[in-house]
Amino acid sequence: MQMVASVIALGALQIGCGKKEGADAGGANRNAANAAEWKVGAYLSLSGDDTAFGTDSKEGIELAVDEINKGGGPKGKPLKVLYEDDKSKPEEATNKVLQLIDRDGVIAVIGEVASARSRAGGIVANKKKVPMITPSSTHPDVTKDRPFVFRACFTDDVQGRMGARFVVTDLGKKKIALLFASDDLYSSGLATEFREEAKKLGAEIVIEKKFLKKETNFTTYINEIKAASPEIIYAPIYYNAMAPIARQAKAAGVPGSMFMGGDGWDALELVRDAGEEMEGAYFTSHFAPDVPWQNSQDFVAKYKARYGGRNPSAIAAMAYDATRLLGDAIGRAKTDTPEGVRDAIAETKGFQGATGTINIDAERNADKPIVIVQIKDKQFHFHSAVGGQVPPK
Amino acid sequence: MMEILSALITGIAQGSMIALIALGYTMVYGILKLINFAHSEVFMMGAFIGLFAITALGGTQAPLLAGVGGTLCAMAFAGVLGVVVERVAYAPLRGRGRGLSNTRITPLVTALGMSVLLQNLAQLLFTARYRNYPQLLPIEHTRKVIFVTAVLVMIGLELFVKRTWMGKAMRAISMNAEAARLMGVKTSRVIAITFVTGSMLAALGAVLFCLDQSPVYPTAGVVIGTRAFVAAVIGGIGNITGAMLGGLLIGVIGELTKLTPYSGLQDVLVFAALIAVLLVRPTGLLGKPGTEKV
Question: Ranges for the Leucine-binding protein domain (chain A) (predicted)?
Answer without folding.
Answer: 38-377
